[in-house]
Task: structure prediction
Amino acid sequence: MKFRRRSSVLPRAPWPYGLERTEPLKGQLWTRSEKALRPPDVHWAWRGLAVAAAGLEASLLIWLWFGPALGLRSVEVTGAHHLNASQVATAAGISSHGSVLAIDGESARDHLLNQVWIRTATVEPELPGSVVIQVSEWEPIAVYHAGTSSKLFLLSSQAIVLGSTPTSGGLVDIQGPGVGDPHIGERALDPQLLTALVNIQRAMPTLIGQDVGGFIFDSCGDLTLIAKRGWKIYFGRVLTPEEFASLRDKLTALKAISGNGNVRYDSPDLLYVNVMNPSEPAVGYKSRQPAPASPLPSPAPTPSPSPCK
Result:
């Protein structure tokens, strides 16, 4: 009797949700690699799109920066008198070949403020291609010359040398120490002293009825006023805050001796008024000066004392 081996084929149980079995059966090998069974990687596709978008954006920026669409077409300058519009634009670092997007208003303003004539400035780029620059300049309030030099220099209210000038033009004339001509852009005097001299010149016609011709401020710090009639006022040293403050008392003394009839400021005989000590002013007249002494043999040379005491 023959026996046949009966085979039983059971149907494969379905996996839920239609998923296929991903583990091999017992005794069975993988027929596909593990990499092939992974879901596709889509990150590279997104990265490619991001790179393309960045490239397009960079191209657009380059076109706007260097292209004609936003190129600089005009520069409007107002408030400049000692510099023309081209000089102001150059000082601000603005080129006619650039783009309006390349202009940094704050940086251009700082460049302008480095110019000796410019007091304030604003720089405003405006689309599509213009720049508006507004400046205000320093007003010269005095002229300065060193020692006996005839070369005059304009001074701002901060005593900064603005430039040379052929004439004083009615400004306060100040002769400083004879140490050589000042350089443009440097400070020639103490601003506080300059303000005091300007105020004195303005006050003198009302105070004593006389106009000021100029001032001498020497290397020792001594201040001398020269009236237009030629006589002088000696104020003494003006360096410390206390000495500055004493100028008010010295001007009051000038008014007081005029009111008491002690001195005539319009007299052609007047030589000087000394108010170094405002409580005891002194007046000198040409007619009362001692006659020059007869010549005497020259004494042996001696060391010269310091000119400043």
About this structure: The chain has two domains: 46-137, 142-288. The first helix runs from residue 34 to 37. The two ends are 152 Å apart (CA to CA). Residues 1-10, 300-306 have pLDDT under 50 and may be disordered.
